Predict the structure of Peroxidase.
Amino acid sequence: MAMASLKASSVATLLLFAVLISLRGLEAQTPPVAPGLSYTFYQTTCPQLQTIIRQQLQTVFNSDIGQAAGLLRLHFHDCFVQGCDGSVLLDGSASGPSEKSAIPNLTLRAQAFVIIENLHRLVHNACNRTVSCADITALAARDAVVLSGGPNYNIPLGRRDGLNFATTNVTLANLPPPFANTTTLLNSLALKGFNPTDVVALSGGHTIGIAHCTSFESRLFPSRDPTMDQTFFNNLRTTCPVLNTTNTTFMDIRSPNVFDNRYYVDLMNRQGLFTSDQDLYTDSRTRGIVTNFAINQTLFFQNFVNAMIKMSQLSVLTGTQGEIRANCSRRNGNDLFILPGMEKNDDGKVASY
């Protein structure tokens, strides 16, 4: 009897040890700061920057918390395509259609672009033209997470705005579609330096926001995707009764406006909306990560923060590269060469500090 009890105790200890080893493998490491960026970049030139942005977004979200997901997604779509340079904000020109015109970006919230421009105006009114649209977009995404109930964290700053937008083909090649499977996600994001844990953590951004029926209708028609829960399917078919409907639904059915780990609980219950979501639980390479995040929100938050810091530094422009735009939707005019920190104001005069 004592021997059986000892064996049971030993097995339990070994199982607990295995779980701890698994979680240790998921411990997040803070990414290094990219050359030219700094956590104190605007300490002298715009010390009130982060207060201005957070206070304004708090007002925006008090009226419509749904805008938080729009700002988070905008940052993703900016960084994945030629780096975090604010190029997704640019309008098209004689050189061709902008990134906004590419199919994956057609469902970016129009109000998100308005919010960024309003933040840009407030910041430049307070600090002259010292802060880039790329940095404002990155800070807005961070605050969208924080003000929705997610973790608070700092991000390195000092990005410059890009001078050109990416072509449609480049945009499409760098934004994995919602019908992508885990292999496609892992391969695509590995090229940008992300490991499987990063990929699963970043996918957790789908814990807030909405999706259009056309993004997942292939899982509903002509019949139910077998990896989808039957009741979940029935409810979605009510929202999306036919192909090509313009209707939308929440990405996370458990807590759609709260940034938490319920998205992973959805996946474990076969209630992920996109193929790219649900396949993270179906695929053996990422299933364990999904499970760990579902049972440990702190672990998810730690890994999400570090993946976001890593993403926010993709191919950044710094120093004398790029520019500080006077308007986030278009390049500056034919200004004379101006040193960083001495950009021209909208009236054409060099800002003084």
User: Anything to note?
Assistant: Residues 1-24, 335-342, 344-353 have pLDDT under 50 and may be disordered. The beta strands are 210-212, 248-250.
